[in-house]
Amino acid sequence: MIIDLNPEFGYELVCSAPYAYWLKKNGHYVKVITSNGMKPFYWFCDEVEEKYNSRSIDNSTNGVQLLPNNWIHHNALSNFGKVYESLTEDEKIIANGWLDYSKWIAPPYADKYYKSGTPDLKNYVVISNRFNLEHGETPIGYFDIESLYTMFNILKDKGYNVIYKRPKNTEFTTDPNELCNKSITANVESIGIINDYELTEYFDNVYLFDDIVKNIGGTYNEAQLTIYSSSEGFISMGGGSSILCSYFNKPVIIYVNTSKDVRPGYFEGESYFKKLSNAEILPVIDNKKHIIQRGFRDYTKVYENINKYL
Hints:
Layout: E1 2-4, H1 9-25, E2 31-35, E3 47-52, H2 76-80, H3 89-95, H4 109-113, E4 124-128, H5 145-157, E5 161-165, E6 185-188, E7 192-195, H6 196-199, E8 206-208, H7 209-216, H8 220-229, E9 234-237, H9 240-245, E10 252-256, E11 281-285, H10 288-294, H11 300-309
Parallel strand pairs: 1-2, 2-3, 4-5, 4-9, 5-8, 9-10, 10-11
Antiparallel strand pairs: 6-7
Helix pairs in contact: 7-8
């Protein structure tokens, strides 16, 4: 069986890798043709060809159209026997995030990449941030300097180290939404204008993700999977980064602003988020339109979940 695709990262983690793993577990020869850097996610395959140097958001041509699940947000046709638009409002709530799992097994990344003593840092939480285009529009959903400062302090008081991740989008194969990646900055009293990377220097318990990757060695994704496998928990923006965090059996606090993830019931019931591992999924929905109306992002429930679940 050959799987040939270059979709968004989240689609690979939800629609492709579990299908490939199901095929392998059921005795099939599996070859995957994928984007550069993705081989660690398909370690179980017989052959992996890293072919693509860019990702496509066109799901009619990027390969996902040939998978059992060709849409990440639901599979109403399989589960209800009718298209999503024909469902009642109650059925839509049930359908949101629910895929066809008949040919779907989540690869055990946590077991595969766990290495006792690696990385050297212990008792840490990963904060996964981003500042990318949001469906072609200027970013509005992200962790700003003030929220990072608050989270760093909360986690320090709770005895955690923090690994702070905000990719420069040069570390992996990108899609069109990742072409914009600017600095997150703020004018901090008594310090001046600093960015989020510089903020970490003011905390003795906060480490930059890319520095840890360099210490581990190997490819970026091999190191990333190793780091995640030993984390005590995750705080993530929605999208592909939160999907990856959900593979590792630890609490995942997800700050969600855009896309179909804001639909009612998306993280409940038969959602794929609940089937990637035994992780506790803790979404905080702060809809983009509400942010615009009130004029600020509300991280209150993110802080509450950190205090309660980490």
